[in-house]
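Progress against Task 2.4 (sequence-to-structure conversion) is shown through the following example record, which the project officer requested during the mid-term review.
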Amino acid sequence: MTSYSVLVFAHIAAAFFLFAGLLLESVVIGFLRRNPDLAPFRAWSRIVSLAPRLYGPALGVILLSGGYLGSQMSAWGQGWIRVSLLTLLIIGAIGGSTSGRIGTISKLLRDASDFTAEILPAKLNDPVLIASGRVRIALVFGVLMLMVGKLPFVPSLIIVAVAAAFGVISALPAWKRSAQRQSTI
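Structure tokens generated for the chain above:
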């Protein structure tokens, strides 16, 4: 087995971990939103805090291994690689901007109390948090499409823009629910 094949394996495995972490975060938050009066809060806090531990390092491995593989293949001139790199950096920035919200939810779940029961539903229904997860998942699918298609720069930008739009559109119901809750208060 060559070092190149090990790097390709690491790159693909990290992509799986990135997607698994994002999906885990979205599924757990969605489940908790629909079941706010669960008793075993502490167990859920461990699961919620696991997601960033999966996708954070995975994103780093993807960037490092992909950067190295791209340089070995002299592929930086290919449009899909540049767009993929930019998209992965955007995914990381979006995740970084909402990491505090995930941390707050995890802390509230660990500290299960009457106060938690009052404030947790609002934190779980935060439309920014929901949009963050959906947009990041859509962007990961966009990058996957770029890896498969290996398209020039402009078509790659279009694919990522369509993926981002799909993520935003899928988050619109959360914004609508939030606006409805605010109007009833």
